[in-house]
Amino acid sequence: MLVEGDVKISFVDMLQDIRPFHSFEPTISRYRSSVSTPDLLWTKGLVAYALDPALNETEVKTILGAMSYITNVTGECVKFNPRAPNDNDFVFITSSTTGCYSEVGRQGRGNQTVSVSRASDCVTLGIVMHELLHVLGFWHEHTRLDRDQYIKLLHQNI
């Protein structure tokens, strides 16, 4: 199931309310629109990845460029490494699916698919970075608890 257009969640996650909007004790991470559960964070900021062999050369360059950019802007606090045999949790990046989507944070169940569908024109630097930020645990900024302090809704434009 997709929520917010490109965030993949399971039915069980939905029932468990993985993002407790109704908590009376907002945390800093909820204000920052990121996961707060340690289990959803990548150990030591290391994200193992595998690329779909069906990706073409241009797609691979775009994906690796997005990873490199994120690594650089985080001061190498986040690193993407090709999956090693002992990496149980990893992201599998494919363009053979439909749509652009990812799960938020490390799911802890092995293969975690990130879809950057070529049919949906998702293999751009910006979209790949966007989906990788979901992998790192970030939600969309417009769903932040404090968003109304920074935006003004123009209801006549809705």
TrEMBL record:
Gene Ontology BP terms: proteolysis
Disulphides: 100-122
> Which residues are recorded as binding Zn(2+)?
130, 134, 140
Pfam families annotated for this entry?
Astacin
Matching PROSITE patterns, A to Z? ASTACIN (PS51864)
Its domain of life reads Eukaryota
Query: What's the protein name?
Result: Metalloendopeptidase
Question: What organism does the UniProt record list as the source?
Answer: Dreissena polymorpha (Zebra mussel)
